[in-house]
Amino acid sequence: MTTPTLPPPFFTGKHILIRSLSPALDAPLYHSWLQNPVFLPYKPYLKRLCTTPVQLFSYLTLQAEVQPLLEIEGLVIHKKTQIAIGMIGLAGIDRFNKKAEFSAGFVYGHGTHALGEAVHAGISLSFEHFDLHKLIFYVSPDNEQPLKIMQRYGFQHEGCLKEEILVDEQQRVDLHRFALMRRDWAESRFHQRLNRIAPLSHT
Asked: 30, 103, 135, 147: least surrounded by Cβ within 10 Å?
């Protein structure tokens, strides 16, 4: 049996590095994070869809085999401690219309600078490296901090989708849909804030 190799980072900044998700190496950690209420909003449907690490491994492996990729996920690692602290991802990638859903989820803080740098890098790479025109953000009404960020920093609110996702057998959750266009990113207040707290100096 071939031992899986650690994917090289595709972003290395001052506080964090980001590498591609490896189903073989990362499925157990990812599955444990899905049991954490702090991380669950990242992809709430996965907890119900993949109830074991083996099922999650199979799901991630299938996603990795689809070409062109419909999902891209990166594991965020704190440089100083080398501890994985969260994930950023693109889902529903539409290459013709150049749009995708952006998500970020974290389980360990390690400070505002690390989290800010991860989100800053994720959005910047989405526009510059993947050449997307539009990023879509889904936020549940009870996920207060991201919702405040969307509202405070002028993300375009495209509506509230009622009972949009099934969290468990007895609970459906509404989702607010926000958007950010590539043309607005450079001058946006959110970009300006991220430049102040976590400017990018990546390699």
From this structure: 147
